[in-house]
Recover the amino acids of this structure.
């Protein structure tokens, strides 16, 4: 266990009091809050100066907590999830009624991801639902934070808690973002994960 019980309790308390945290992932640093906290989600948009038309994504330490927030995942999506989760892939799928419109900019879909980073996993395991509404840790149109120091410099005075990376650093390349048209893979953003569509 990397995070102390004291830090886990602090993370839980911050999140449950409509707080926003900053944390390391396998790709870049992120900002996150509980999906159920509209107040905290609004705070994330304010911190970043983010356009309301740009949705947040949902992340967890495992696919199973995320399944409550989505509807049917296409079989192609299921195969990608099985191969690339945890990892640098965000899959955009139909959302369920549990995913609020204020997270998805009123879109009918939501991006989900399971980062491959032990510190992020333990952060998720610090609170009951294990799911965060997230975006990159930076001001809009600026590069994302790639280290604890950069996170502190960029948004440290704006968030409620910046969690150390304990040496489990971000690689610096964003996740690949994919969606689906029937079973066809649509690549919305080419990131670290390279996908050969013909294999799926």
């Amino acid at each position: 266990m990397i995070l102390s019980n004291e830090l886990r309790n602090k993370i839980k308390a911050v999140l449950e009091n409509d707080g926003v945290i900053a944390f390391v992932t396998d790709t870049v640093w992120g900002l996150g809050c509980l999906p159920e906290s509209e107040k905290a989600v609004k705070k994330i948009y304010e911190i970043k100066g983010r356009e309301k038309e740009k949705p947040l994504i949902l992340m967890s330490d495992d696919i199973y907590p995320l399944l409550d927030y989505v509807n049917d995942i296409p079989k192609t999506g299921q195969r990608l999830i099985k191969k690339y989760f945890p990892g640098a892939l965000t899959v955009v799928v139909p959302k369920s009624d549990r995913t609020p419109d204020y997270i998805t900019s009123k879109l009918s879909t939501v991006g989900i991801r399971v980062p491959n980073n032990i510190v992020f996993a333990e952060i998720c395991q610090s609170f009951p639902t294990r799911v965060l509404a997230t975006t990159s840790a930076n001001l809009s149109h600026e590069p994302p934070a790639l280290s604890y120091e950069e996170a502190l410099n960029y948004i440290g005075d704006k968030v409620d808690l910046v969690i150390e990376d304990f040496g489990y650093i971000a690689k610096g390349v964003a996740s690949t973002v994919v969606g689906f048209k029937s079973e066809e893979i649509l690549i919305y953003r080419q990131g670290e994960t390279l996908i050969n569509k013909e294999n799926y």
Summary: The two ends are 36 Å apart (CA to CA). The chain is about 30% helix and 20% strand. Residues 5-199 form a domain with the DHBP synthase fold (CATH 3.90.870.10).
